[in-house]
């Protein structure tokens, strides 16, 4: 069973307060899918009357990272996880509520399985798409996550 969204939102408050106070929240999480949300407001604005790109990046990264964290927890093994690269593109101004979705849960599951078998770091490229309330795409982010099984100390 995946981690509950409320657990991750509490984690944000305690460990990533910048994301929490900018309004980033996990709204839905399953084995294959994660949806995060952030609403344009005074605290996350840019001078051009839209949401600052980095706030969009935090929400997008969380939609992929929550899936990674959830699969690691389900595996009952210890892994290290590291974001190794990302790219982004912006199609229109982000105003109102923006929902980011990632549907790459099965990709990270396969990557963790490869890491267990190979005993070396493995990477997975995951995509998050941000859409406004009209369903228009405002931004797309691609994140490369590296995971490695932690070896037990003797």
Keywords, separated by commas or semicolons:
alpha+beta, 154 residues, elongated, 6 strands, Thiol Ester Dehydrase, Chain A
Return the CATH topology.
Thiol Ester Dehydrase, Chain A
Query: How many DSSP helices?
Result: 4
How many domains make up the 3D coordinates? Answer: 1
CATH architecture: Roll
Q: Give, in spatial order, the strands making up the sheet with the most strands.
A: 1-2-4-5-6-3
Helical proportion, percent range: 25-40%
User: How many extended strands?
Assistant: 6
Question: What is the approximate shape?
Answer: elongated
Instruction: Let me know the largest β-sheet.
Output: 6 strands, antiparallel
The CATH top-level class label = Alpha Beta
The CATH superfamily is Hotdog Thioesterase
Provide an overview of this structure:
- The protein is of the alpha+beta class and 154 residues long.
- The protein has one domain (5-149): Hotdog Thioesterase (Thiol Ester Dehydrase, Chain A).
- Helices cover 34% and strands 34% of the residues.
- The protein contains 4 helices and 6 strands, in the order ααββαββαββ.
- It has a 6-stranded antiparallel β-sheet.
- A hairpin with a 5-residue loop joins β5 and β6.
- α3 crosses α4.
- It is elongated, with a radius of gyration of 16 Å.
- The relative contact order is 0.19.
- The model has no long low-confidence stretch (mean pLDDT 96).
